[in-house]
Amino acid sequence: MKLNLNVSLKGFSEEELKDQNGKVRTVASLCLDALLATYTNELIDGAEKIIRYNLALKLKGDAKIPKSGEINLTAEEITKIKELVGKMYPTLVVGLIYELLEK
Fold first, then answer.
1. Contact of 52 with 42, CB cutoff 8 Å
2. The 3-state secondary structure of the chain, one letter per residue
3. pTM given for the model
4. More confidently predicted of 24 and 63
């Protein structure tokens, strides 16, 4: 599935969501953080870490997400991203990213 992840998220007030430093984050950067994070009470082996790392590289586009932001993701890759986004972020961010990934 071809998706544009080079977009910001807007909350219910229609303002772009920002991090604690006031920086607007793209969906791609939020997904990268979720893929590369370490989660409490999660014991994963090296194989799972490599799956996450390789998917992060794909999102990153070997150092550059295309300006269009469009990337082809498989259903399995989308499921993995959704799983980790669901662990990392609050409800609003999870809902907005899931909506984008399910289009």
1. no
2. CEEECCCECECCCCCECECCCCCECEHHHHHHHHHHCCCCCCCCCHHHHHHHHHHHHHHHCCCCCCCCCEEECCHHHHHHHHHHHHHHCCHHHHHHHHHHHCC
3. 0.87
4. 24
